[in-house]
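Structural prep section.
Before we set up the soaks we want a predicted structure of the protein with phosphoenolpyruvate in place, mainly to decide which crystallisation condition to try first. Input record follows.
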Amino acid sequence: MEFRKKLIAGNWKMNGVGDALEEVAKLSAAHPDPTCEILICPPATLLALMSALPVGRTIATGGQDCHREQAGAHTGDISAEMLADAGARFVILGHSERRANHGETDDDVHAKARTAIAAGLKVVICVGETLAEREAGNTLEIIAGQLAGSVPDLVTGANLVVAYEPVWAIGTGKVASLEQIGEVHNFIRLNLEKHLGAGVGRSTRILYGGSVKAGNAADIFGVSNVDGALVGGASLKAADFSPIITALEAAN
Ligand code: PEP
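Run finished without errors. Recording the tokens verbatim:
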């Protein structure tokens, strides 16, 4: 099996002003030599400041979105090149909040991923079903459609990360069961192998996201094909995020 370095990603969403950088310093002090990759995606206003902190060896930074075009008349938007210039190494794309609140389609995510990869960024492409889609028994079909529509075929195992985030589990305190997580992660692995080739499919990291906390992280990280997590609320404070990182480091 290809080696996949575990990845723990924090999505700060629209939270945090300057003093939140102290949390990153605390996190770095708690994990001076991590065995997994640690990523924080702060609001764009903090990205350059966070990237310039002397913790870059242990904590990478990323954007939460980028525009599908390289540059132009797009007031209020941010380009992939700008993220990279501010020190980002990753960008989250197709988060369900972007899909729901900004009408982002798979085609948008696909175009953004191409632009981000051209700018040298690694992409964390989010997929996940709504509660209605799960209850209708359509989960795997929805995931397959999102992967087919959102993931460009130019990706490699080094620049693609897929995050499985059931929409009903994000910020709700509801966590998918270990069986549900295992089923979808195995499905994503096989789907990537089938459509992108065995090399890319086996080396792509697949993260789970949806109310991951210190109390449930170890169990989730024990599920096959879970290579880490995308964490929202519990990534804002070092005291909450650190035990999740420790659980990932301890996982086989
Ligand atoms: C997320 O925003 O991607 C997320 C998983 O949020 P939370 O951990 O708060 O559910």
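Observations: The CA atoms of residues 96 and 167 lie 6 Å apart.
Flagged for discussion at group meeting.
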